[in-house]
Design goal:
Elements: H1 11-75, H2 78-85, H3 89-107, E1 113-120, E2 125-127, H4 132-142, E3 150-157, E4 160-170, E5 179-188, H5 189-200, E6 209-213, E7 219-221, H6 224-231, E8 243-246, E9 253-261, E10 266-273, H7 274-325, H8 329-334, H9 346-392, H10 397-413, H11 416-434, E11 439-441, H12 442-460, E12 464-470, E13 478-480, H13 485-496, E14 503-512, E15 517-524, H14 531-546, H15 552-562, H16 567-580, E16 587-591, E17 595-603, H17 607-612
Parallel strand pairs: 12-14
Antiparallel strand pairs: 1-2, 1-5, 3-4, 4-5, 6-7, 6-10, 8-9, 9-10, 11-13, 14-15, 15-17, 16-17
Length: about 625
């Protein structure tokens, strides 16, 4: 058998030949793919203007259609109607609070809404952030005309350039429509169009120019000089056609498309600089060649110097880490071991040694941290329980004194039946306050509040009435014990008792499923608070959250010295913060001569949901 002659070459030369062949083949494939890519990309960039501009026009049309629905829903809601048609001062205040809630809920329907305003025919005005001065020119222009949903121009709202939409507010259900006012919707047009451009052009193939104008050829968004050039260029008869726009003062030529929104009289122009197409193709082709060259260089360096020994050592380390992740405690004690073969790397060896030392230190540190956190948690939990128990025990002695005095008077009159009812209710209140769990259902808390109000009704006779308004799912919600009674007591003592006329108390609760909490409110029609007193109380509530010393009795004494009339409110606020955190402080609104509303919020939890979790 004939033997073939073997050509002997050094390993280094063999590797060089293989590497040269690899480079030549890779360069040829890259060149072929680049030429094909240039052709495809040219066709793609030419057609992308059509798809991009049509999608932008569609998104803009859908956005303004949704704004029409939002305007219609808000303008003809019962809350807005009641607010504009209300004549009574007290009910108007309540209607205003409901209107604010309605506007805030509407505001959340779209991220590009900057403001919502209601402008009544009688000058009544309400908005979330804008001023009546900003909307008055539009209201005056529309005052004497009959108009549908329309665009009225642009203006600055809180420093933001906004496109203003208007919707007439007319009466409903009266048989004859009468205008009550105008609903204005302020759209952050810069945010709307710039976000649409970013979302649809995420690959940054080109930078389009966007122009947006109304029927009066007033520019709403875009560059004014470019818009003047567009106006001087005849547009095609069909919106499906593209046309060229050439700037007079520069050599730039744009490919343009125009879309009209006839209902609102708006026009949208999308323009792309033709030179961007060539520039993008050249840039991408250059990047492809540079990336190919960089990859070839990295392959050479890694294969020659680092790849094989590094990969083997790294695999050993990864296998050891996976063993630890699987819970192999013996592997931690044994440590990582390395087998690099005949020629190894001192750096890899040092990494393994350092890793083994880190494992030992980490184990020691984990034990230390675990012990420290265990002691800190037990100490913090004990301190919180002590502070909550102290605050809950602070029952107003004036209530006890007045009740006992009333019982003595009943005894002198021989009113045995009423004495039994009052003492039974008083006993129930004290038994409830010192026994049982810290968390109770709203139904249980309400029974104690009713017992307290029965005692106060006996004391004040017909000085006030009581109304309850609770949603069906509110009664089972768990709340801290004795948080409603002090607020009701505050409403009677500092609100109704100081008033010279009969009043009322409204106690209610409702669940907010979206934010996961239950809101509880106590509203009285007493004397209310002047603005400076309300501001002082709100400041005390905020200070009670951040200026705590850790000594509940000292903190309570400090609050009593600073705001004695509201110590019950501050006590409840401190307990709410201890239970739920600083986001659950009391919310207080008051108007002198009208009344006071106090609201507290608790996470919506029931005994059943806690058992399931």
């Amino acid at each position: 058998m004939k033997k073939h002659k073997t050509i002997l070459l050094p390993l280094g030369r063999q590797f060089s030949i293989i590497l040269v062949l690899f480079i030549v083949c890779t360069a040829g494939i890259t060149l072929y793919n680049t030429q094909d890519y240039v052709r495809v990309q040219t066709d793609f960039l030419s057609s992308s203007l059509d798809s991009y501009s049509s999608q932008l026009a569609k998104n803009t049309q859908e956005a303004y259609d949704s704004y029409e629905n939002i305007c219609y829903s808000a303008a003809y809601s019962s809350v807005v109607q009641d607010f504009l048609s209300s004549k009574n001062r007290q009910s108007s205040y309540e209607a205003y609070q409901e209107l604010r809630t309605q506007l805030e809920n509407t505001f959340l329907l779209n991220p590009y809404i900057s403001d919502i305003a209601v402008y009544g025919q009688d000058g009544t005005f309400a908005s979330l952030g804008g001023s009546a001065f900003s909307y008055k020119p539009f209201a005056d222009k529309l005052d004497e005309t009959s108009f549908p949903y329309c665009t009225v121009g642009t203006t600055l709202i809180n420093g933001t350039n906004c496109h203003i939409l208007a919707m007439p507010i007319c009466t409903l259900g009266t048989g004859q429509s009468q205008r009550l006012g105008i609903l204005f919707l302020a759209i952050d047009i810069n945010h709307l169009l710039s976000n649409s451009m970013t979302n649809m052009n995420s690959q940054k193939l080109y930078e389009p120019e966007i122009l947006f104008a109304n029927a009066q050829q007033e520019l709403i968004y875009g560059t004014r000089s470019l818009y003047r050039t567009v106006l001087s260029t005849p547009a095609p008869q069909s919106e499906t056609d593209t046309y060229e726009v050439k700037a007079n003062s520069s050599p730039i030529t744009y490919i343009a498309k125009c879309y009209s929104f006839r209902k609102l009289g708006l026009s949208l122009y999308v323009l792309v600089d033709k030179s961007q197409l060539t520039s993008q193709i050249q840039t991408i082709s250059l990047r492809q060649f540079l990336a190919t060259g960089a990859i070839l260089l990295l392959v050479f360096l890694f294969v020659t110097f680092l790849y094989k020994p590094f990969l083997d050592s790294l695999k050993q380390l990864i296998d050891f880490m996976k063993s630890i992740s699987a819970g192999n405690r013996k592997a931690i004690k044994k440590g990582a071991q390395i087998h690099q073969g005949l020629i190894g790397s001192t750096e890899i060896n040092d990494i393994f040694n350092a890793f083994n030392e880190m494992l030992i230190k980490t184990e020691e540190l984990n034990h230390t941290i675990f012990d420290s956190y265990t002691r800190m948690y037990e100490l913090e939990a004990n301190n919180r329980k002590t502070e909550i128990a102290f605050l809950r025990s602070q029952i107003n002695p004036h209530f006890l004194y007045n009740t006992l005095t009333m019982i003595c008077g009943m005894a002198a009159e021989g009113m045995t039946d009423k004495i039994i009812l009052v003492t039974g209710a008083l006993s129930q209140i004290f038994r409830y306050s010192i026994k049982g769990n810290d968390m109770v259902s709203l139904r249980e808390e309400l029974e104690i509040v009713k017992s307290y109000l029965m005692i106060q009704k006996e004391r004040f006779a017909d000085r006030f009435t009581i109304e309850y308004n609770f949603s069906d799912d509110a009664y089972d919600c768990l709340i801290p014990k004795m948080v409603i009674q002090p607020l009701v007591e505050n409403a009677i003592v500092h609100g109704l008792e100081k008033s010279l006329k009969p009043g009322s108390i409204l106690i209610g609760a409702g669940r907010n499923p979206r934010h996961g909490y239950l809101a509880i409110w106590i509203f009285d029609t007493g004397v209310g608070m002047p603005p400076e007193k309300l501001q002082e109380l709100r400041h005390s509530i905020a200070a009670s959250v951040h200026d705590k010393t850790g000594d509940a009795s000292a903190d309570l004494a400090k609050m009593d010295a600073q705001n004695h009339d509201s110590i019950g409110i501050l006590n409840v606020n401190s307990r709410m913060v201890l239970y739920y955190g600083a986001d659950y402080t009391l919310i207080i609104d008051s108007e002198e001569g009208v009344g006071t509303n106090i609201q507290l919020r608790v996470p919506y939890q029931t005994s059943d949901s806690l058992q399931i979790s």
